[in-house]
Amino acid sequence: MHYIEKEEVISLLDMPGCVPLMRDVLMDYCAGRVIQPLRSVMPIDPRRLLGMMPSANLATGIAGVKVLSVFLDNFQKGLPSHQGTVILFDAENGRLKALLDADAITGIRTAAVSAAATDALARPDAHTLCILGSGLQAHRHLEAIRLVRDLREVRVWDVFPDSVQRYKTEMEAKFGIPVVDCSQNVRAAVEGADIVCTVTSAKEPILFGAHVSPGTHINAVGACGAAVRELDTEAVRKGRLFCDSRESCMNEAGDLLIPLKKGELKEDHLLGEIGLVLSGQLPGRTSAEDITIFESQGLAAEDLAAASYVYSKYGQP
Ligand SMILES: NC(=O)c1ccc[n+]([C@@H]2O[C@H](COP(=O)([O-])OP(=O)(O)OC[C@H]3O[C@@H](n4cnc5c(N)ncnc54)[C@H](O)[C@@H]3O)[C@@H](O)[C@H]2O)c1
């Protein structure tokens, strides 16, 4: 049995390899090739929880569990908000194969999933990326989205201006794409952007429909819980809405569940799972003017596929 630490996971889970891997997992999930109960979440309080996410993929023979803590206020303490392990089993004989750092896997696979969704839903000529948030996912999302679209400008907003400045310096040096500091003005960040990623631990809306321009694609990633949301009702209403898992979305996605509860939207506003769009069974974007939304809750099958990919490369010369 191996323990694969954070730095090793980061070096082995390359983003260009992870994006197509996630595309395949999302299609496997929709095709019924994945066994996966709704994750079990135990809140310690609203900002601290423990989660357990089992999954088995019948197509790839990959099985295991992600076990993690999500402590949302760790960001202000300079600590990772997600910590834990992915436990990988041999699906043939049940042997425990490896434990892998969950923070690194979560960080990379989530952005790779968004990139796969963006590739399916964003306009081909999308060049301007807006990122709301400047934490781990904000870093990973720029790294991933630039693989599927020719990005010429990145705009970033956060409630912490110092964090935006650090993000700008680091990302411009790493990728050579101009990053505009929009920490004073979320509207300036969002208006006219071709792709918007919401990657914050906000509880109340930070993305407003009034600011979203026709033709935009939105990856709604940060709000994982029925009582929290990043998108206001108008933002959700304006978009063609897709999700990773209908079951997860109808139980955990406050972006949709809060407007449903208030009677502001109907359940059929959710058009379906992105895996169906990726496999050509469901229309995604129908015109250059459409606003599209990918609601991401995160699936254990994604973690296990990424863990297996890392394991297959581990120890190789
Ligand atoms: N959908 C998925 O699969 C998935 C996977 C991983 C993380 N997440 C979620 O994405 C979010 C970001 O994750 P991360 O790893 O980048 O976390 P992080 O702790 O590194 O960053 C959190 C970000 O949220 C911002 N923030 C905190 N409070 C805020 C508020 N009240 N309003 C606006 N912004 C606020 C912080 O400034 C920071 O930019 C978390 O909510 C996390 O649970 C989702």
Describe this structure in words.
The structure is a single chain. This protein is an alpha/beta fold. The protein contains eleven helices and 15 strands. It has helices at 6-12, 15-30, 102-121, 136-145, 161-175, 186-190, 233-238, 246-252, 254-261, 274-278, 300-313, and strands spanning 2-4, 34-35, 40-45, 48-57, 62-71, 82-90, 96-101, 128-132, 153-157, 179-181, 195-198, 217-220, 239-243, 270-273, 291-295. The chain is globular, with a radius of gyration of 18 Å.
- The CATH architecture name of the largest domain reads 3-Layer(aba) Sandwich
**Count of alpha and pi helical runs:** 11
Helix coverage percent: 25-40%
Biggest sheet: strand arrangement: 10-9-8-11-12-15-13-14
Our estimate of the beta-strand percent is: 25-35%
CATH topology-level name of the largest domain:
Rossmann fold
The CATH class assignment of the largest domain is Alpha Beta
What are its keywords?
binds nicotinamide-adenine-dinucleotide; 11 helices; single chain; globular; ornithine cyclodeaminase, domain 1; Rossmann fold; 317 residues; seven-stranded mixed beta sheet; 26% strand; 36% helix; eight-stranded parallel beta sheet; alpha/beta
Quick overview of this protein structure:
This protein is an alpha/beta fold. The chain has two domains: 2-106 and 301-313, ornithine cyclodeaminase, domain 1 (2-Layer Sandwich); 123-299, Rossmann fold, CATH 3.40.50.
